[in-house]
Every structure is written in C-alpha cells, then in structure tokens.
Amino acid sequence: MQDILLTNEGFLNVISRSFEIFLEKGTSRSNDKLKPLHGAIARDLALRLGADYEIVSQGYGEDKEATIEGRYFSKMVDITIKHHGVSVAGIGVKFVMQNYFQNSNNYFENMLGETANIRSANHPYFQVFIILDKLPYYKKDKRISRWETFTDHNISKYIRLSDDNIDVYFHAPNKTLIYVVHIQDPEEEGRITTWAEYMDYYRNHKTKMTLSRHQYGNFGPAVILNDYETFIDKVYHAIKAL
C-alpha cells in the first residue's frame, strides 16, 4: 500500500492516466479506463481509514466490486467501504469524455436514483463526477457533428443539488465531487472530423491535463468543485462517524 496520501495533483494525474487508457483501448465502454481512478481512491481511503476497514474496488486489492444492500434492491458499487466485513458506505465514480448533452439528464437521474436507494438504507453514499470541459459529439457513424462545452447551464442542476439538505433529501449524495478538466485543444481542430482522427490525435500528442479555468459559480455544502483533498476528507469523517 502506498504511504503517501493522494493529493489534488496526484488525483489529476490519475485522471490523465484514465484518459490515456481510454485512448489505448479505443472504446469508452471499457471498464479498464476507470480502474486507475477507482483503485487510487480506494487505496487512499484504505490508508486514511486504517486496518478496521476494507475497501473493495476494481483496480485495488482483489480487483472486484462489492454489493451494498439498498432499501429497494442491492447495488454493485464502484467503491465499497466495509467495516468488520459489513458494507457500510459507497462511492460512485463517473468520467464523461464524449456525447454529454444527449445523456446529461440520464446521468443526473441515475445518480439521484442510486443514491436514494442506498442512503434510504442508512448507508452514506458519495459521488465523483469527472468531465472534460470540451467534448466531441459523435453521430452514429462516428463522425464528429459538433464540439460540446460544459457550461454554467450544464452545471446549474448541481448547484441546486449543492444546497439540498442531505438529512431531508435522500436522493442527494452525502458529498459530491465535481471535477471539470481540460486537455489542450487540437491544433487545426476543424480537420478532426471523426472518432478515429480524434483518438489518433491524442495518442500522438501527449498533452497535460489541467483543471478547467472556467468559474462555475458558488456551490453549497453538498457539492465540492475541483478539490479532491477536501472531498476525501469529508468522506473520511462521515465514515468514521458511523
């Protein structure tokens, strides 16, 4: 186990590695791209929480997911925290790299639904939502029809969520981390017109991933923007308080 806690810089490096694996695998459907993210968070939590807790996740330990019993149905969770062998809390992780607008409401509704199911069974649940601030939108034939920008309008529902009282609204995660990241825009962007050209460009042009410079407004206490260290500290204290 690593003996150094994961920092904001380290978390950003892990996100970069996930993007590199996405390019290597050539498909957004592969779970391999998420293993570095899940594993890094799981390892960091294990270090913080100590030997009384077991963290179950792909990319860490036995490289598997575990189930949490919800109020209505059991759910396989990206990262499960166990105490003395019992699942007590979970973290869901999402990394969006393409075609955001057509799925944005689905992402949000699914997040609310799975959170309500788990939190209504008295298990703390946390969410990590990572997105590129500029994404390609592909047609069915894999041609890029436009470039999408993650804007103030897109994040407005998360700002509303951030003010929800988690003791009243069980659809609201105990804490949500939103990480909006930027990769260098392609040179001569207009010449990249297909999925294959996009993938080839970033395979051949290793670019440093940074936090988005866009200012997305003021968030209430339930949502944390671009600050992994604060988020994981809140997760730690919530679990220790059980």
Number of strands: 11
Order of helices and strands: HHEEEEEHEEEHEHEEH
How can the largest sheet be summarized? 7 strands, mixed
From the helix content, strand content and strand pairing, which structural class follows?
alpha/beta
Radius of gyration computed on alpha carbons? 18 Å
Mean pLDDT: 92
User: What's the total helix number?
Assistant: 6
The unreliable regions are none
**What is the percentage of strand-forming residues?**
25-35%
End-to-end C-alpha gap: 25 Å
Q: What percentage of residues falls in helices of 4 or more residues?
A: 25-40%
- Taken from the alpha-carbon principal axes, the silhouette is globular
Written account of the structure:
There is one protein chain. The protein is an alpha/beta fold and 242 residues long. Helix content is 34%, strand content 25%. The chain is built from six helices and eleven strands. Strands 1, 4, 5, 6, 9, 10 and 11 form a seven-stranded mixed beta sheet that branches. Strands 2-3 form a two-stranded antiparallel sheet. A hairpin with a 2-residue loop joins β4 (79-83) and β5. α1 runs antiparallel to α2. It starts with 7 loop residues before the first helix and ends with a helix.
Describe the structure concisely for a colleague.
This protein is of the alpha/beta class. Helix content is 34%, strand content 25%. Helix 3 links the parallel strand 5 and strand 6 (125-132).
How are the elements arranged and paired?
Layout lengths: L7 H18 L9 H15 L3 E5 L8 E4 L4 E4 L1 E5 L2 E11 L7 H16 L5 E8 L1 E5 L5 E6 L2 H11 L12 E8 L12 H10 L5 E2 L11 E3 L2 H13 L2
Parallel strand pairs: 5-6, 6-9, 9-11
Antiparallel strand pairs: 1-4, 2-3, 4-5, 7-8, 9-10
